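Try this one yourself first.
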């Protein structure tokens, strides 16, 4: 496992000029279904105005993730119903 430096906590206005969403991804090494700070491998920020919504769904063990994981999709909520639907997904992480 590479040694990943601790990511600083984000507050509104630091990375995002408007409010945004921080997405942290990593492997659940101890299997407690919680992404502990020590397990975070990547942090990405999505700011309002770039992509409006983030949807995360569990990814079963399989082709994409041999050990299972989480699929994160982002995109603009083009019909403004507060839900990210398939046609609105612009990125899958
Ligand atoms: Ca964990
Ligand atoms: Ca929508």
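Now uncover the answer:
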């Amino acid at each position: 496992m590479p040694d990943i430096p601790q990511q600083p906590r984000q507050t509104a206005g630091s990375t995002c000029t408007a409010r945004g969403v921080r997405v942290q991804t990593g492997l659940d090494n101890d299997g407690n279904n919680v992404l502990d700070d020590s397990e975070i491998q990547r942090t990405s920020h999505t700011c309002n105005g770039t992509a409006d919504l983030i949807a995360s769904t569990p990814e079963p063990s399989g082709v994409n993730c041999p050990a299972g994981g989480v699929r994160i999709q982002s995109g603009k909520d083009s019909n403004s119903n507060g839900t990210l639907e398939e046609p609105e997904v612009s990125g899958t992480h």
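Discussion: Residues 20-92 form one domain. The CA atoms of residues 5 and 51 lie 26 Å apart.
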